[in-house]
Amino acid sequence: MQKTIVRFSNQNRPEFIADLRKNVNQYFIENNISKHANGNMVFKTVFMLTLYLVPLLIMLSGVITSVPILYLMWFLMALGMSGIGLSIMHDANHGAYSTNKRINKWLGSTINFVGGYDINWIIQHNVLHHSFTNIHGHDEDISKPILRLSPDQEYKPKYRFQAYYATFIYGLMTIFWLLAKDIIQLADYSKRGLMKGQKKSFSRALTEIILTKTFYIVTTVVLPIILIDLPWYHIVLGFLMMQFISGLILALIFQPAHVSEDTTFFTPDKNGSVENNWAIHQLLTTTNFANKNKLFTWLIGGLNHQIEHHLFPTICHVHYPAISKIVKETAESHNIPYYHFDTYFEAVKSHYTFLNELGKPPKEMKMAS
Length: 369
Hints:
mainly alpha
């Protein structure tokens, strides 16, 4: 069935987005700085790639003879893998890393070497999630059959205990992506014509997926089993541990930003309208957290400034702390809410509280649906 075309109202308070763009642009003009990567971002890129590649190379050298050291290597790779996803490929695939499209393409494709596929990610994240944030039936980030992430999603009894098993599901995210999700998405996106915008045929995309995933599995599982003089099951368990940790980190950074007690969910009317203009919609469906924690901000690619990211996805995340003050002041001057939690713990707590509410039958839910 053809999905309703979603329409935002450009006539609904257009002065807000005009002021917002003017104020943010003025910041870059007055300080004479680029909206793209700076030295801090380049250092972070080297750091995250090193955190992933050095432990992998140590394992491939075959010098590891200690089981605890082996698991330490997998743990460090999990952190590096998460850092690549949160910081490097994320900015690059938004075109935020550089003005050079080749650099963005090359760094964006780093997701292919940690088990994903850049084209599918761009469609799911840039096209579907950013365009239709928290809109039921359009935003794939809240469309998980095994979890109920929106009050507009049909209730089923299996969701009753989702607040308790969600953590385990989140940990399986990257391994599911590696083994099945990209193939499922490719078939779906090809059927819906979404691959045309990426200028990829089904056969070419499928070939790339098979080749990159084969390379990934060979370098991270097959070769370590061959080269490391330790029981093979430690390699497999270490690999699964890496996937679980990375999946958990990624999910618990992205999910609290949109699926929380404060954020709003929308279903378009029969004409496809969601009433608000696009910028106001982003503020209503997104929340920030732990914005004053500089180390945390650095480690997770600035994605605790999720509001700024959704409003200005083509600006490199290293600039979010500075422009967040401008965004907040502009929103407040127009009487538009700017949701944020002071700490990361508060954001995660709100997410799980909301999951628990969504797990109840609609008649028992406390929030307005």
